[in-house]
Amino acid sequence: FTLSGGIAFVLAAGICWPWIVVRGNRTRIFFEQPRAMEGEAVAILARTTNHLPIPSWGLALREGNEKRDRSLSVRFGGIPSRIQAESRWVFRPTIRGLYPRSPLYLSTGFPFGIWEPRRLASCDSPLLVWPQTFPVGPVPVMDGEDVIDGNVTRNKVGTMGDVVGLRPYRRGDSPRRVHWAQSARHDRLIVCELHSNSRPVVLLVLDADPTIHTLGPNGSREWSIRILASLAKGWLETGAQVGTVWSGFVCPPASGSVQLLRIMDGLARLPDSGQLPLSEVLRTGVGRVATGVRIGITTDEGHVRLASHSAGIRWAVLRRNEFQ
Q1: Distance CA 31, CA 91 (A)
Q2: In terms of Cα–Cα distance, which of 18, 245, 230, 247 is closest to 116?
Q3: Coil vs helix vs strand at 318
Q4: Using an 8 Å Cβ cutoff, are 89 and 44 in contact?
Q5: What does pTM read for this prediction?
Q6: Higher-confidence position of 219 and 200
């Protein structure tokens, strides 16, 4: 009886001890920057306060949703009694969104690991992760641009701005644009082509309907979001006016860093579900809020559904089955 009682006492103490340790410790999480991009290294600071008169061992920070990205999970070392300990580590988010994407819990199974009670950890400074972007080409040549001094559309010929190239003389060209040195060399009139001082207007339309996409970090939906983010960022940096439209979000065309912040934050907060079909979005007329060019991003399955709504829109179509 003595031996059995001793074993039972040890087991009971081993089962109750994790609960006592978790209740006696409190953890707060801080991201050391408010925004980041997919794949970018982000530093995290965790402050754990041990209110117990004895050290705490085996503590770990775990995410509550097993299906989410588990990159925030980490194990702590021993925490002395009556002290606040700091832990710092680096993680790389693999997908856009608001982090932490699921609740964080402080847990421990020490000493036997029979069960792991947990306590919710607080996050005082969440992290907003933008979609990854890539270099893009120049803004497409289009009609309906706003002529504004100081904003130059590259690779578009006009009558003002810097010289972009030379060409043979055509009837009606101004004599002031004749390049006399090249004309003498080629024994025919050669004129200078100039930039067009204008600001292009672009509206990017995203088909965010999950039913026509494959999901996941490498699915067609996330790559559609990355394509839109790349176009918006690249063209805003060249001075264009860029607007975006998707289900539940309308951002009229504008330029500048504030517009980029608005678009990227909207993409980062785009939910994984609950998006209307793009045909419903275009039917409301929001796809016609801008002059200039309109570019839609969808999959081959989504493009078939949009056959009657695709007039006046240039499409970037992804093959759904190529993304797994």
Answers
A1: 10
A2: 18
A3: strand
A4: yes
A5: 0.79
A6: 219
